[in-house]
Design a protein that fits this description.
Layout lengths: L1 E9 L6 H14 E8 L1 H5 L7 H12 L7 H4 L10 E7 L1 H8 L6 H10 L5 E7 L7 H8 L4 E3 L2 E3 L9 E3 L4 H9 L20
Parallel strand pairs: 1-2, 1-3, 3-4, 4-5
Antiparallel strand pairs: 4-7, 6-7
Helix pairs in contact: 1-3, 5-7
């Protein structure tokens, strides 16, 4: 297993959690140290896709360590240099906007800010119904931001939800390794796949 220290931060796109947890499980098979982080909404909100407590238990069992879910818990990531790479998956439109505009008011955005102060890569896996709408400008700003890398994404339902985009979560490990080399996986924009509509 690789010794790379990977932070894995989840935001509140609850409908993608099953696919996201599959991706997280794969990371725990590849990397010895995976640090789970939940946004406050993720840590405390029950939805029709499952309870916050059940997801937290599953995540902690996968990673073998407690979830970090508050600003004070994640702030040491920066000064103590705790991570080599931070993945945010799913990265919602709300979090994309905050990252693009320097807003740090959640555990996930604080984790990103703390990590970026060390000049280390942040990998974003967008999942938003607004990706080609209001969130498009934020994606554009982040695409050119130093030390920010994107998991390749696509329209997940071009006919039903033409503005919606979803990262191809199976490409997270490849994107991590490229980001650690200072490279963006290409292509960033993937072609539509009919089966992707089932992800949302």
């Amino acid at each position: 297993m690789r010794e790379t220290r990977v932070g894995f931060a989840m935001c509140g796109s609850y409908c993608t959690y099953r696919q996201t947890l599959t991706a997280l499980e794969r990371l725990t098979e590849l990397y010895r140290n995976v640090v789970p982080i939940l946004s406050e909404n993720s840590a405390g909100t029950d939805s029709r896709f499952g309870t916050a407590r059940s997801f937290r238990i599953e995540i902690e069992n996968l990673c073998g360590r407690p979830v970090l879910s508050t600003i004070p818990e994640v702030e040491p990531i920066g000064p103590q240099g705790l991570l080599d790479v931070l993945v945010i998956a799913p990265c919602t439109g709300n979090t994309l906007a905050k990252l693009a505009h320097g807003v740090t008011d959640t555990s996930v955005t604080m984790a990103a800010k703390a990590h970026l102060r060390n000049g280390r890569p942040v990998v974003l896996a967008p999942a938003t119904n607004d990706g080609l709408g209001a969130a498009a400008q934020n994606i554009g700003q982040l695409l050119v931001r130093k030390n920010i890398y994107f998991v390749p994404f696509r329209q997940d339902d071009p006919q039903g939800k033409p503005n919606s985009v979803m990262a191809e979560l199976s490409l997270i490990p490849e994107t991590i390794e490229a980001a650690l080399r200072g490279e963006q996986v290409q292509p960033v924009l993937l072609g539509a796949v009919e089966t992707c509509r089932n992800l949302r």
